Fold this protein.
Amino acid sequence: MNVLPRRSRLHLVSYLLLLSLIAPWAPAVAGVFSVTPVRLYMTPRDRAIAVTLTNEADTEVVLQADINTWSQKPDGSDELVLTEDLILAPPIIKLAPKARQVVRLALLKPADASRQLTYRMIIREVPEALPASGIQVPIALALSMPVFITPPTAKRQMNCNTGRADARTVSLQCSNTGTAYAQIREAAVMRGEQALARFEGGSYILPGASKTISLRSEKAVAAGPAQLVVTFDDGQSLTTSITLP
């Protein structure tokens, strides 16, 4: 069994984040293995939480876990850096066909009592060397899961503004000035009961970051007063009166 070097693992960051952001609320399944829960929540008092790994395949699978600090630049682009703040024990897991194992994600550093700490745990299949040539496949299958360590006082604080990108697109810029993450599940420009333009997805905005999201319509969006409704992953909504130019 071979473990990828640090440099190779860092080159995987953008690809692995894409896997997780396509549908961050869906079950975490990577073809031959699955992980539950799909998002990991801890409080400052938690020293460890349980994570269940399941081999869905008919052959043995070897999995490796890396933990990364997860931050965002002011424009909302993600940055991951390998860290030893947390550890999955054991970090390398060998699962027999259809087997299931419960492992522990442990926090090794004191949590922050004033703000949320955000990480990404990346679990990937470790490929075997090809017997004929010994060539290594860089990556087989991987899952990237967010880890949130949240004190009771940490809250998101969202401010959203709209603009016009074109006749059928409303641009939405949201800034998070709070101390906890926000995830936009849906955003819509409403006029009465009619949705003029809509975004559906799963866009994370970490504290201190901003993101611009496009709300699209199949036809031109008429100017005039409207309501902007932004819905978050916890089901709460932010409603703002706007005027479309």
